[in-house]
Amino acid sequence: VSAISRTYAMRSGMFGRAAAVHAVDGVSLRIARGQTLGLVGESGSGKSTTGRIVLGLEPPDSGEVRFDGKPMAAPGTTAWRAQRARVQMIFQDPLGALDRRLPVATQIREPLDIHGLGTPPMREERVRELLRAVELTPAHGARYPGALSGGQRQRIVLARALATKPDFLVCDEPVSALDVSIQAQVVNLLCDLQAQLSLTLLFISHDLRVVRQISNVVAVMYLGRIVEIGSADDLFARPEHPYTQALVSASPAPGRRSAGRIVLAGDPPNPAARPTGCAFHPRCPRAIARCASEVPALSAVGGDRQVACHLVTGAATRDAA
Ligand code: SF4
Ligand code: MG
Which numbered ligand comes closest to the C-alpha of 244? Predict the structure, then answer.
């Protein structure tokens, strides 16, 4: 019907009340329809806050979130409810997301009841369809959350998130609580469903291995800012920002030997004590004097890559590297 691409853009600055913490500072992201943007970084980098702002669960104190080219509707309005049916989320802890006292099929049906989608028999059929989509059976649907494995529970949460046929899914560490052997299965399922349903995903994870598996575009966050963004394959093959280089060196591609792990000195990032200049400078193996005083801007360095580092300034730097 249309050749218009749907984009989700956001710009925001978050300030916690107590300590004026920049959880997220001037982050700008666009996700094209049907694409997965992987948002990576250590805990405290502002990834989850970014996800919550995108979902409308937290207001940005500056900037805005646009969905389908239009600003997100105000919470509580009819427009917001309609939008919420199209924007869904999955978090780390499937058990916390489910009600232990109800059979899981009932919980998958809940969004259909809330949004008044279909007749009761149609809803029952839709629940069976959703169970099949996440590779479970009606027998699983009859169980309570406590009688399912962690991986099965996350599949149930996924089925429920898909019930209203959303276009956009925010996944915040969706497999981090699962056994490593189960993680790949759930991520594969998510990849398959994304392709089948043309879902747009914002996939938040500290785990590069998982992000590599699912993302088209990757954004790396450090203390509330995007320090590098680019196509996933290219970014993993040729990380430019010293922080991304350290992350990638610690998580080599499967079957590939690490070229040597870059071990970062200093403390993990603390949003309440943000260093001056480039926030990464106390840990950066390549820091120069300027880094302690001047904040590097995120700038295009060739291709679709953007990097925020005083040492990475353009195509010439890339070719010389
Ligand atoms: Fe390192 Fe300086 Fe680049 Fe920051 S700006 S990443 S401290 S070299
Ligand atoms: Mg988090």
Answer: 1
